[in-house]
Amino acid sequence: MAAGSEREVFRSELRWAVVAAATVAVIFVAILGAALAFQMNPPSNIEMIDPETLHLSGEFTESNLGTRVEPGGRVVARVVATQFEFMPHCLVVPRGALVTLRFVSPDVIHGILVSGTNVNAMVVPGYVSQVHTTFTRTGDLLMPCHEFCGMGHSQMWATVRVVEARDFKPDRQGRADCAKP
Ligand code: CUA
Predict the structure, then answer these.
(1) Distance from residue 149's CA to the centre of ligand 1 (Å)
(2) Smallest Cα–Cα separation from 131: which of 115, 142, 120, 140?
(3) Is the CA virtual torsion 114, 153, 61, 90 positive or negative?
(4) Which of 4, 58, 109, 140 has the fewest CB atoms found within 10 Å of its own CB?
(5) How far, in Å, is the centroid of ligand 1 from the Cα of 17?
(6) Which atom of ligand 1 is nearest the CA belonging to 84?
(7) What is the pLDDT, as a whole number, of residue 61?
(8) DSSP secondary structure code for residue 100 in this structure
(9) Strands 85-87 and 75-82, sheet pairing
(10) What is the pLDDT of residues 42-52, one digit of tens each?
(11) Strands (E) located in the chain
(12) Is 156 near ligand 1, meaning CB less than 6 Å away?
């Protein structure tokens, strides 16, 4: 390197420092924009649950799983993600309504996403993963497990069936499933 190039080196380093800082700034603005414009946020709900006993009593017993219209009118779907299936295997929800999805795992970390929507969350044993969303299109949406959870991971998926609100007919207990939406 030619003598007296120390200043050039300094300038070059400064240029790259500016490029790196600008890149960080762009990424930061993109994250902030996605959060504010598209509601793409990390989960804010911290709710703990004992993975060893969640199936024995309370909210996530087998008879309480699936979609239910709560007394206040809120649509809540409860799902247990376990090696290697979702219980229930199909969820029915009405189009256009605010739906709360609640997931728990009794074994290992799973992940869920609903194709074609911004629903995407990890299901970590010990915590309730909660997502609020409104489905805008009717049809059967694939909900695969997207976190490697063991040998049967690739077979672990469920369906979210979005039906028109007029076709969504919960029973007297407020329950609806894919056999009788
Ligand atoms: Cu559960 Cu992958």
Answers:
(1) 4
(2) 120
(3) positive
(4) 4
(5) 41
(6) 1
(7) 94
(8) E
(9) antiparallel
(10) 777 788 999 99
(11) 66-69, 75-82, 85-87, 90-94, 98-104, 110-113, 120-123, 129-134, 139-144, 157-163, 175-176
(12) yes
